[in-house]
Write a structure and sequence with these properties.
The protein has 160 residues and is an alpha+beta fold. The protein has a single domain, classed as Regulatory factor, effector binding domain (Multidrug-efflux Transporter 1 Regulator Bmrr, Chain A), CATH 3.20.80. It is built from two helices and nine strands. Strands 1, 2, 3, 4, 5, 6, 7, 8 and 9 form a nine-stranded antiparallel beta sheet that branches. The protein is globular.
Length: 160
């Protein structure tokens, strides 16, 4: 597993759809299948990248056994303004992120996340910060079932 790149993330505004559900409930496929046909309704998109975002509220995301998570499927926008009906605006604040590169099918993404939380984070000199976690899927993301696909997992951190 490759070491992450530490970045000073400048912040981002994303317009998309979201759902809050128990961690044990699979909502990703349904959320993306609802967002993608409506993506064209989003104005002021600044790049073709897509963002899968998770907000863990009042829980420790390292303990993935219980609790709720708010999941987002969205596109980056350049300014606040028109938000299509049934969508919302999320502002991701600036801050430090460890960016892990995941290569391969999405069904192996949990291996990248496990490495980040159980191996890298405890040995890194950083601690988990309470900001959204997200994946950026750019031009090298070839789909969930493509073994050549690449996505970038952003883990919010701060110095210990």
């Amino acid at each position: 597993m490759n070491e992450p790149k530490i970045i000073d993330f400048p912040g981002l505004m994303v317009v998309g759809m979201n759902v809050t559900a128990p961690l044990s409930m699979e909502t990703t496929v349904k959320l993306w299948s609802e967002f993608m046909p409506r993506k064209r309704e989003v104005r002021s998109i600044i790049s073709p990248d897509l963002y899968a975002i998770r907000e863990y509220q009042n829980m420790n995301p390292v303990d993935m056994k219980s609790g709720n998570v708010k999941q987002w499927a969205g596109a980056p926008v350049k300014m606040e303004g028109f938000v299509p009906k049934g969508m919302d605006l999320l502002v991701i604040d600036p801050g430090l992120y460890a960016v892990f590169t995941h290569h391969g099918k999405s069904d192996r993404f949990s291996e990248t996340v496990a490495y980040a939380f159980t191996k890298w984070l405890p040995e890194s000199g950083y601690k988990l910060d309470l900001r959204p976690h997200f994946e950026r899927m750019g031009k090298d993301y070839l789909g969930a079932d493509n073994e050549h696909s690449v996505e970038y997992f952003h883990l919010p951190i701060s110095k210990v």
